[in-house]
Structures are given as structure tokens and as C-alpha cells.
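A reminder before we start the practical. When you read a complex entry, don't treat the lines as separate problems. The point of joint prediction is that each chain is placed relative to the others, so the output describes one connected object in space. Small molecules and nucleic acid strands, if listed, are placed in the same frame. In the example below there are two entries. Take a minute to note the order of the lines before looking further.
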Amino acid sequence: MKERTLFVVLGHGAPEAFTTTIKLWQRAAGEGCLLLVHGGKLRDFEALDYGDKVWVDDPRLRTRSHPVERQSYCGAWREVARWVESRNFDAVYWAEFDELPLVAELGSRLTEIMSLEKADVLARRLKRVDGTNDAHWLYHEKEQSFREVFEKVSCRDNPRIVLSMLGTGSLWKRKAFLEVAEHPEGEPCYLELFLPTMAHHLGYRVRDFGEQSRFIGFDPKSNDELLEEIRAGAWTVHPVKGVEQERFVAEVAGL
Amino acid sequence: MKEPLLKVIKAVMPLLLRCFGVPIYDTRTKEFLGHIFVFRWKGKLRVVGLKQGVIPGFIPRDSVKYWYQDLGFSRHPAPDFPSIAKKKRDLPPESGGS
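Here is the predicted structure of the whole assembly.
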């Protein structure tokens, strides 16, 4: 039987900012497989003309300098987990509002990589960072509580391993997603470290997306750069900033 | 005043690193990791220019040298740990976390 993937898109803007996003993600996800998560103002959420949506009222999500304030998706994950529990999805893909999909049937493409990798979680720019010069790890490592969160739950031989991934564009098997959502972060911990590390210590196999990871970056891209990536076979691109750039991507993607 | 100066430094730094930085290689894979500057800083060494996550460490050697040691950098291999979530669930509760 074909696996069903839920695509979760996290945003915080005004309703009109979601217009292109919804169209592109609906095409990629298929009917009934798109959930919008709104972390902004309640009135913007209520004005959002889309059925499957949840609102997250969590100050830990609304950070400005994300790594410094250790932005967390834990509140958002709990809300989504509650929504997912009563529905029959096999996997959850988590995207931020500035990641846009370019292809249809994205779910089956992504789950194929997951099967090939025998992974429970697929992440973008996944790396092991403990003991390295990684700025986020160094910032957290000073605190004993950061280590304890993982040591308490770890079923691994080495409970000190810390993984890092980008916050957008990760694919989770249902069981892994729900179990990580159950575990609170304790002391504030930046989501890019917390999510893959918690999954790893709970015993899940976390792997990188491989070839497709290179289209998900953190520096702003020009339209020419985006076009180059689309031509190179990107399934999704990130970051796409502003309505104008969204329209450009939608046009190139044939929407 | 501070911000424009930082911008200038950020803009010229890659060129300075390429021209005057120390080239470093992964001690495990021999892969080129980039150019860096190393400064002394309050009893420590400050490293500038590292772009990827590397682990610093003294390099094992074939002979005994008391008067110098080589410090190098290596990267973790890509995460490739097995899934043991199912196995963990099958264990009795008292041994589940070890």
C-alpha cells in the first residue's frame, strides 16, 4: 500500500503571504496531505482561508535571533502530533514557509530515499557536531543540562553524540515524529540540535537527504541562483524570500 | 561605526585567508578543509576561518618526540547509526536505557 506523507508548513505571516505557498504545497503533497502551522498572530491565523491548520501560541517559537535565543519547535511539534494522532499518515515532512516545492508527488520521492537509506528520519545538512568547532554546539555544551536531556533517554552506547540539521525540510516516520514530540526539551535547546539528537538517542536512524540537501541552504539566493537549482533537479528550494521571489519560483515551476 | 567595519572585514577576510592563511587538511581523510588564521588569545588559541565542523586533536606519531607535537583537524564521518528503536522497545523496562 502506498505510504501517506503529511506535509507540514510552518509560517507566521499575514494570510496573503500563504497564497503561493498553499498552491505549490498542495500540488506537491496531494489532496488532504497539507497542514499549515501558524505561529504568528491569532487574527492572521483565523483569517487564513485553509481548512487544515493549527495555531501555535509559543514564545519559544517566536524568537528573533534563533540560535542565540535557542528557538524551539517543541510547542509546534506537540500541536501537530495531536493533530496527526487521529489520522492515518505514515510519515511527516516538516517545512518552513520559505521552502517551496517544485515537483508533484513529492511524498513518494522522499519516502523512496527514506527506504533506500533505511532511515527513520531524513534531514538536510545533517552532521555530527559534538567535540567540534560548531558554533551552536559550543554555545550549548557549556551547560550540563544540555547533555542531561539526552543522557536520560539515550539507548545508544555513546550518549554524548550530538547531531545537527537545518530546521526546514526534514522527513519523519510517524513513530519517530510522535515520540520526539512527546519529549520536552527541558532547558532551552536550539531546534537544529535538539530534534535530530533526540531522535538519535531514542534509537531512530537519522540520515541526510544526500543529493537533494544541497538545494536547501541558509544564505539568501538570487532568482538566477534559484533558477539554476531548479534546472539542476531540485525537488524543493530554500530560502525563497518575499512574495516576488515566491511568484518567480511558482512561475518557473509551472504553476 | 562598528557594523560597517565588520562588513569590510567580512568582505576582505576570504581574500586574506586565501593569501596568508594556513592551509589545513583532514588528518583522517587528507581532504582539504580550507585556510585558517591562528592567533594567541588570553592564554588560548583563537582560530579564524574554519568553515566546517572539525575536531581538533594531537596527531598520533610513529616516533617519540618530547619537544613538539602536531595539532590537526578532522571531521566526523557522516552520521550513519543503525536504527535500534524497535530493539529498544522489545527490551524489558529495566534494561531499556542502557
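Discuss with your neighbour: The first strand of chain A starts at residue 5 and ends at 11. What might explain this?
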